[in-house]
Write a structure and sequence with these properties.
The protein is mainly alpha-helical. α3 runs parallel beside α8 and α8 packs antiparallel against α10. The longest helix is centred in the last third of the chain and has 32 residues.
Length: about 270
């Protein structure tokens, strides 16, 4: 023990570094060039993957809670996911300190690797309802990853799970809105009408009303993250193609048009 009472002998005790496997984390950065900014690029993406791992964990717990009508628990979990995306969003500010000249020094070392190949990002998209089966192809070399993504495609997404909770609460949700589906979710006027009923009398439908607002919060933060991604990429590489062969900025701009919970946005106009 030190004079302040802190334990200082860890020869036979678990230390902070032992518990967090700090050595493994800090030895996972392997720049392929001599460029100073490549370490920034690696750490930015590695930490984003860690935050995404936590987001997936919390989204799974939130979906389970909604399915079991433990909505108060789900509200906390969904709020946490929104804060995770706020952290992901803020990280772009650090990456934007990298200039085009800085990035050019090591870009060739990346080969065809690209963020759109992130399996965890794909899983988040699938959980949130943007289910493009064609995006399984970049993961075909990893059967375990494909199996994980296929399992997600076989179950209702987060929004369908929320709509099922609304149906159990006595609201008129069409059966077609409750099943797993491929591709972006199309707008259903009957679902919009259901949400309008909730928003016109929130006190009567308070748990479902609050669930709706938590979902809007989540998509709001998710949209900001995607928007800042586009801005950062354009600032660093302009309109050049991405390393993975996509159109770069043009591809990312198309992603901005994807709406995860369409009726929750349409209802604002309908009220």
């Amino acid at each position: 023990m030190s004079e302040h009472g802190a334990v200082t002998d860890f020869a036979k005790r678990m230390s902070y570094g032992d518990y967090l496997h700090i050595d493994a984390i800090l030895s996972a950065q392997h720049p392929l060039s001599q460029a100073n900014d490549e370490l920034l690029f690696i750490i930015q993406h590695q930490t984003s993957e860690l935050w995404m791992k936590l987001a997936i964990h919390e989204l799974a717990a939130a979906r389970d809670a909604i399915a079991a009508d433990r909505l108060d628990e789900a509200f906390k979990l969904l709020a946490r996911v929104s804060r995770i995306f706020e952290q992901l969003n803020n990280a772009w500010d650090v990456l934007r300190t990298m200039t085009p000249s800085d990035y050019t020094e090591f870009r060739d070392a990346l080969g065809q690797s690209s963020g759109f190949q992130s399996a965890q990002y794909r899983l988040i998209e699938y959980v949130l309802g943007n289910r493009n089966r064609a995006m399984l192809k970049p993961h075909a070399h990893r059967p375990d990853t494909v199996a994980l993504l296929e399992a997600e495609l076989a179950r209702p997404d987060l929004y369908a799970t929320a709509l099922a909770a609304a149906a159990r609460a006595g609201l008129p949700v069409p059966a077609a809105a409750l099943v797993a589906r491929d591709g972006p979710r199309p707008t259903d006027p009957d679902v919009t009408a259901m949400w309008a009923e909730v928003y016109r009398d929130p006190r009567r439908h308070w748990p479902i009303y609050e669930l709706a607002e938590k979902l809007v919060d989540l998509e709001d933060y998710f949209r900001r993250w995607r928007f800042n991604h586009v801005t950062t990429v354009e600032r660093v590489i302009g309109l050049k193609r991405g390393t993975g062969g996509t159109g770069g900025v043009s591809y990312l701009r198309k992603m901005l048009d994807t709406v995860l919970f369409p009726e929750l946005w349409d209802v604002r106009t309908a009220l």
